User: Fold these one by one.
Assistant:
Number 1:
Amino acid sequence: MLRFIIRRLIITVILAFVVVTLVFLLLRLIPGDPAMTALGENASTEQLEIARQRMGLNDNIVVQYYNWWVRIIRMDFGESLVDGRPVVDELVRRLPRTFELIIVAAIVALFVGLPAGLIAATQRNKMGDSFITGFALLGLSMPLFVTGSLFVLLFGVILKWLPTGYADPGDNMGKHLLSLVMPVGALAILLSANLIRQTRANMLDVLGQDYVRTARSKGLGQAAVLKRHVLKNGLIPVTASFGIQLAGLLGGTVVTEAIFNWPGISSLLITAIGRRDYTTIQGLILVIALMVLTINFITELVYAYLNPRIRYK
Amino acid sequence: MPTSTLELDTSSPVTAAPEKKSLRRWLNGRLVLGLLLVVPLLLLGFIGPLLNLGDPIKTDPLNSLLGFGQNGHLLGTDQNGRDIMIRIVVGLRTSLIVTLISVAIGGTIGTTAGLLAGFYRGWLEQVIMRVVDLFLVFPTILVAIAVISFIGSSLPNLILVISLLIAPVFARIIHASTLVEAQRDFIEAARAVGDRNQRIIIKHLLPNVTTPLFIELALMLGQVVLVEASLSFLGLGVPPPEPTLGNMVSTARGYMFNAPLMLVWPSIVLATLVMGFNLTVDGLRDALDPRVTSSKK
């Protein structure tokens, strides 16, 4: 196991290195003069100079690259091009809002997706199965922004059950929890749709194995077979794919936060893109990418812990 | 009913289907339903705009936010008095063009890379597959947002970015299949009769990896429609006033109180299109790969 951990850790560190470098290079993708693109044609020379300074464009590229690393290691992602405040401050302030969405959505999805997938697998080709797989298919086919927008329309505008905007937990916790319902709902539908399909497919796979037949032939009831033989083996691949889905959710929150004006890091990303605030975009992309790497790394460890065969590949 | 699953599994689906049944494989419910959803939308998107329905961009402030069927606008008009149905048809075409071109480019690059990596092995395989790994670590939509926010949004940029992002998916799938196929006897036979590598790859390997390729193509069509629409929704797709399904939903959110249906129409079209592709994928799996039934996958 230790060898496995070290090997994955090395790979993750290499990937992190590549990511930091790629994010550094992003700024060089801007056509023309980045400072000019950021501030527009009318910016004064003075303003342009400050922008170049903040983007770290004044030295030659090797020095720039070195400075970039020095800053990253110090957890300094530079200052916003728009208001000059450190990107890190805003990031730290908003991170809990994004985590909140992802974690609650993940929990809801687990409570919905796992049992539903299990029911679908055990009742294969019956009413319940068709209903559940139909829901999963619909959930996968609806873009997040469509589900989210339709939620707002239905529950916020027509039925008026839920608030359409964000409420700060500091002001009013009850309202904050209510405002969580719709964004979490939209994310959880997508996540549980994936989970249902994964769980169902893996369960069916295991249900067809010889050892399940053996268990049945020695007279075990359905419940005992599921509990002792099917669940454990069937859920191992599901954990792996769930981890990957969670990492993917960091992409999904971009749209969700945009719809619900949720003050997380992803909506900051969209605001920053709108204002051409390149330093903020860089910082955010880097942090999100490193979070994806971390989630993937943890997923692999959990997977290897549950499934010893993986460790010796 | 504990015995039911047992019975199902004893009638193993692995036995080769007789010739007569091959047509029935193609007539499975999911594939038929999927194509019934996708084909009309494809026709609508490509033929619709040619029918001279009207201008999707010209504004008509006197007729703004009309409801269902008012003043000869079947689906009403938007905040600038533009006919929603015409905009949906034209937007659908934009989505389809981006999707088809990106999947074609990405699929070609990815398939080529996967074939080369799986056939030649060695350092070439290492280089290609490590790049693929790097790409696949991150959520597609996130990388697309990152890159487009720096290079700027336009139709060619959108197609370029999406193609590059989906190529690795094809590369991984084709690489895996190529590894298996390259071990088979007919490849050795082809070598024995003196076929050159290029000919072996094109004539012998490629035709044998078409099953995963087709399934992946259909899968990606649905995915790319989603990605393109999400980017448009976020304002990173084809720039307005050009209509796309994504930016129509985005605009409609501002008029939810006055004209809720403005939001509903493009949403329905979008969801139907993606669902059609997804059903087609499940159906294709059933039809092309008799070992795996979609109820299992």
Note: The domain at 86-295 of chain B is CATH 1.10.3720.10 (MetI-like fold).
Number 2:
Amino acid sequence: MEPTVLVTGGSGFVGSAVVAALKRQHPKWQLSVLDLQEPIEPQLQVQYWFCDITNQTEVETLIAKIKPTGIIHTAGVVPHLKDRYSREARQSIFRVNVDGTRNFVTAARDNNVKAFVWTGSCTAVTDDFSQQYPNIDESWPTSSHSLVYGESKTAAEAIVLAASNQHLATCALRPSVIFGPGDRQLIPALHACIVNGETPFAVGDGLNMWDITYVDNVADAHVLAMENLFSTKTAAGQALFISNEQPLPFRDFCLAVWKSFGHYPPFQVNIPRRLAASIGVVAEWVTWLTGYPASLSRGSVQDACQIRYCSGVKAREVLGYKPSVSIEEGIRISCNDFATRSRMQGRCDSGRRGRGKRSQLLLD
Amino acid sequence: MRAADVIYYTFHVQELRSIVQWKIWHHPVHERDPEKEPVSLRVCFDLLDQTSRSFSAVIQELHPELLVPIALFYLILRGLDTIEDDMTLPIEKKDALLRDFHTINEKEGWSFTGSGPDEKDRELLVQFHYVTEEYRKIKPVYREFINDITRKMGAGMADYCNKAAKGNAGVETIEEYDEYCFYVAGLVGQGLTQLFVESGLANAALKDRPQLQKSMGLFLQKTNIIRDVREDWDDKRRFWPREIWSKYVDNFEDLFTPANQEAALNCSSEMVLNSLNHADECLFYLAGLKEQSVFNFAAIPQAMAIATLALVFRNPDIFKKNVKMTKGAACQTMLDSTQNLSKVCEVFRKFVRQIHKKNTPKDPNFLKISIACGKVEQFIESIFPSQNPQALVRQEAPETEEQKKEREEAKWDIIYMLMIVMGTLFVLSFIMIGIAWLVGARFDLAFSELKDGNWRSLGKDNARKMAAKYDRGEL
């Protein structure tokens, strides 16, 4: 019998890409999607369920009803860039990312689910700013004292991996920063830099490399992980970094995105890291006093200067993962998508205001 | 030394220093002993000096086991090259010579006087019987390797010459470009690897990595092809593949028109990108060389190639003239590349960052070049990690009883140390103040003056007056 696979957060950014990849590669699998929000483009032959993942009874009831063979748990909350460095939202983020994950792991165990793939994040390791992360592999420890998001991913990952046993095989994927059509964080923020005239200013020496992964590649990794847990189970109980295997300086990624919007910085000023950090402190005060959000803060300076890319060897060896869309192609697709979306938004902006709230709790 | 050089080195003292250092401090790992060599071998080394500017010195420093085989290997391939290059030879004759060159090695007393009068390595072929004489003396297994490569290279060159004779001058596709470079350089990498491994001076695993061997040759060849674009074109030759340049200009000669400079630069950066993609594999290969002289022999050309690549990247001069590294820069690179792999990696990182710095988003290959540079950096990081995850693991791990005790001890050490310092200061101050008091220092006066706000020091006379003011009663 063909397996039934449930994708949580299947209407979100990563989730919808996972659903599309599953449909493409396993047309016979029965797919269910569980989310808070309705899908932007509902897929044929996919069952949609609505549920609050922080409510344990609701989750238990639904899993008992759907009886999936495998669960891909992508639902989670990614704080908006401007809240990334604050600790205020800790409770709400932990409720969704940690408690929500625990609910599904428990429900999976109680309902004879065979395989559980969880969308973690490289931030479980890399959100501690006191370190640099060049070419890291899975032997690097997760950090329990970093930023709220990274901490939530560390805590949830521990729950997922500890649950792996002979009946239920679990694995955690740790994708890097993800971009692609439908992304509401990275490309929009970079586009805003053009509007604000911030593109000439580079923080640090501009040599620090990052991993940035195209969303369809991340989706492929999820499908491979599910296949693995259904068959050889060599990924069971494992965490795996997922990247585009094309680490590049963060600054260069920005330049390439701006280029595809037809923008070239007229000149470039490299602001030394320490100087930028002190300006960041001042900017934080100004934000605190006036309430006007600035793009610069200590956190964003550290983010922009940090080295964080992984070796990618384990995903290649264990899952046979190989990114199929290059960063260049990914940027082209994403920027076209962004341009189309902003044109549409421009046209029906007034009518849509009411839906703006949704983006606060981005289901990923 | 020309006046221009004097001025240049006055402002680039660092480079001058490198030249001096290289001249004074570079000691060959092994030295050949011409006294003990037969005449024919000495002639061979003379020929080597004449034919190669850059390789002769490194070859002559090679381990004695490989010294002669590699020198002869070089001369034989150089002979082939001379025939290939010679435009005065009719194609039928050239074809036959190239394809039979491997049998010539075995023939006694073969030499060739039919080269054009302007051919710069004509003399080598005229005296080639010395080469074959020495060749017959080396170990049969080495001969087998050299012969095999000579045969393959001769055949590849003959194919290329035939095509050129039919009017298909110039390389069409990138695949053809790779193939051409493989015949003239990749094969050399293969042959040398066989010699290195057979002699036990390199890791045997290298033999099973044909891709790495190939990259060693292709990286050098492709970099030279980019640098020599002008010179080759002046000689009516073109090695840049049409598949690449046709994206930027309609006719190859348009690259040399100043009006097309931007297109020409973009075209050259795609050529640089194509070459740069071999860089990480070259470092990987070098990691397999054990013996110092073999390492130097292989590493120097690679380091020079990455330096050249950085020099020609987005450099409009390559379309105008022969671009050359300064002697100082060359010596610096040689100094750095004759130590160990980590030093060579630093050289690569340095020049890759220069390329990265010159890279501009207006270049259509911007992102690809950035990623290619990143690949080299990542590779270096993978063989020489700058961070140690184990240290972090220890940090994250809960403290053991022993660590706790240690930390506690360290804390008390600091406290004791502070107590001793403070105690010493206290005792010393007590003694000093005590002595001052004994000999009659008037602290009471000092304090009350300070209280009144007189912080400045008084003169001797004023002090006396002051004392008198206070002590009036007793007088």
Note: Chain B has 23 helices and no strands.
